[in-house]
Protein: Fatty acid desaturase
Organism: Tsuneonella dongtanensis
Amino acid sequence: MTQQLANPPAKASPTYTGARNEDDKALLRAAVELTRDLGEAKASIYWPDMLGSALVGYAALAGAIVSDTLWVTLLLGVIATLALYRALLFIHELTHIHRDALPGFRTAWNILVGIPMLMPSFMYEDGHTIHHSRKRYGTPDDPEYLPLALMKPWSLPVFVLVALLAPIGLVIRYGILAPLGLLIPPLRRLNWERFSTLAINPDFRRRPPADGDRKRFILLETGAAIWGIVVIASVFWIGWRPLVVALAVFSAVGILNQLRTLVAHLWENDGEPMSVTAQYLDTVNVPPPGFIAALWAPVGLRYHALHHLLPSLPYHSLGEAHRRLAAHELAQATYNRAHYRGMAPLVGKIASSTMGRRQSSVQQKGAASAEATP
């Protein structure tokens, strides 16, 4: 059973009853009032963090490629995975910070991380804003939501393992399908609708980009397509080893991100709209004192539930915002209900939900069969 970090307050919110369509007004009011001074995205934090993560990641990846010693290759591969994973997850920040907040940061990230990892920022833009919509979170329109806790038990390992193939899929999407799409318009339309969004909802179809974004998206896709072609062609002049090692590291990044995604929510919504508070409680914080979460949920994502309360708050401010809300007399009763101790108990909780539904379904079928027996 998942252990929650609950510290019952002396005085709970007098208005919130826990209904799915009702908000805890004390929590929402406190979230806004206590964090007014934390909204500035600080260039002195963003730039060194992103650049340092990318530099360490690429240096370790290069070392893993050229090393002739297995344990050195594996060690450098782990370092490359964690560093590049952190660098990659700045894509989440790009979706939320104002475009004028950090001049040049979005372009630099795409050149240094997004395009080389075949994950340009447009793959997260637009779609992620739907995920934060009050009316569309957890509904069939949400590209980033599946009711995993309500699905079959086998869906969880499939959900995670499919990430192993993501790097190969991205090479095909940009290095093959994008160039062919210039010659075959239906293929280009399919590529955009189905393979241009970091979505886990298989029914999601992306709409054409807004006029203001079209040129920028085309430039990013062109850059990623050129790099994809270079990656495919590289095997003919430098051999298979660099590509195989890089794909192995990027697959590890994909698995790590998919595990984080698996425990980012409780995935218990059945498709109906939810209040902001209900969305918060369907989402997960893994706050300190544990430090491992900072590796598998970096760039502020260990405070994912808090992020759903305050999506525009920069990642470096989430820790302080968490401390203030966790100590607030009227907000903490609801706020502390979204805190969990780590990935393992969360995976266990979601798996238990799927197994419980399976057992209930078997029992219902058995009862129906018994009633039908003369």
Q: What stands out?
A: Confidence is low (pLDDT under 50) at residues 1-13, 360-374. The first helix runs from residue 25 to 33. The CA atoms of residues 165 and 249 lie 12 Å apart.
